[in-house]
Amino acid sequence: MVVALAFLVGGIFGWINGLVRSRRLSRWHCFWRLVVSTLFVVTGAWIIQQFSAGLVPAAAQVAALAFAIGIVFLVEGVVAAIVTLSHREMAGWGWGLANGVVTFILGLIIVTMKAGGLLSVLGILVGISFLFSGIDLLVFSAAFHGPDDRGGPAQPA
Q1: Contact 133, 13 (CB under 8 A)
Q2: CA triple 72-77-78, angle to 5 deg
Q3: What is the tens place of the pLDDT at every residue in 35-91?
Q4: Which of 136, 24, 118 minimizes the C-alpha distance to 76?
Q5: Which of 15, 96, 125, 134 has the most CB atoms lying inside 10 A of its own CB?
Q6: In this structure, are residues 100 and 119 in contact, taking their beta carbons and an 8 Å threshold?
Q7: DSSP secondary structure of 41-101
Q8: 26-39 burial, b for 16+ CB within 10 Å, e for fewer?
Q9: Which residues, including other chains, have CB under 8 Å from residue 72's CB and lie 6 or more apart?
Q10: How far is CA 132 from CA 47, 64, 80, 100, in A?
Q11: What DSSP designation does 157 have?
């Protein structure tokens, strides 16, 4: 349930962030950011639905959950890398690229992992992805805002 709530909150904040930054991103990039955020919300809602649906064999439930999370991470990794590479002039773009690459690799690991090891490492892999996404939001995304947007003093022209 914690993963489900994290996905829901992450998706909602992703939507808010995407809409706030929509004027600074191309329509293509904004669209794909919103697609990834939607995948997060849908996956979070699906996870909650799976837990409330009754008794489902635990192995099948964990495998389906892992596969859904892996697919979300694959898509998110590609989108993050593409958006970052198109904004290399921005400070901190390397963190955005690192986030995309790490998230994509984690998605591959999750999708190709055997069922026996999924439960023990799924939370760790999701945590690693969220850590890199957080760093990306703090460093790379901050470059899209001027000093006035960050709450600091405005620089004289």
Answers
A1: no
A2: 105
A3: 888 888 888 888 777 766 655 555 677 777 788 888 888 998 998 888 888 878 877
A4: 136
A5: 96
A6: no
A7: HHHHHHHHHHHHS----HHHHHHHHHHHHHHHHHHHHHHHHHHHHTTTTSTTHHHHHHHHH
A8: eeebbebbbebbeb
A9: 7, 36, 39, 40, 43, 107
A10: 22, 24, 11, 9
A11: -
SS3 151: coil
CA dihedral 15→17→85→103, nearest 10 degrees, is -60
Let me know: does 43 contact 69? Beta carbons within 8 Å. Answer: yes
Vertex 148: Cα angle to 142 and 35 (nearest 5):
40
Q: Using alpha carbons only, how large is the chain's radius of gyration in Å?
A: 17
Cα 18 from chain centroid? 12
pLDDT over threshold 90, residue 130: no
**Confidence tier at 157 by pLDDT (50, 70, 90):** very low
The predicted structure's pLDDT at residue 105: 92
Angle at which helices 58-85 and 27-52 pack, to 10 degrees? 170
CA max distance for the chain: 64
